[in-house]
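Following up on my earlier thread - several people asked me to post the actual chain instead of describing it. Fair enough. Here it is, all 165 residues.
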Amino acid sequence: AAAVLNDIGAVIELSGLLRIKGYVGRALPESISWADLTAAMAHVNRGEYPRLDAAGFERFARRLFRDVGGRPAMDYDAALGRTLEAISPETPMPDLWAGFDALACPTLVVRGTLSDLLSPETVAAMVARRPGVEAQFVADEGHAPLFDDPVSIDGLVAFLDRVGA
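Reply from S.P.:
Thanks for posting it. Predicted structure:
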């Protein structure tokens, strides 16, 4: 067994959660087209994925939404937005180190170099905290790395091969 943590860790940065809180769980307009959704996602996520072109953002949109009658529809639990309602600068972030420590298996921590959710300092602390934890950094991607390029995929496959998973 092994674990892969894709741009998430024992410390989650408030700035990233606040950014995500701004759009997760929001209902889509019923009349939205794939082209409009793709343009909106490019606008919101350009800083997280500067290498994506229009076709890349369309693929990204189609990973996160499903097609219903030729129109995009949310493909995740809208209640996820409610779980973020309590997040604010005044609310202390939960301590997630105990959960990380409970992972008693080889672990790959993947971080997009543009991530505002998982800091390089947290990744370093996780790697230093126990044996069997490795880090992989994905250049020019934010939260969360898409694993749609050979470097990311090869790194993941190499980790899984090393640990026999």
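The mean pLDDT is 94. That should answer part of your original question.
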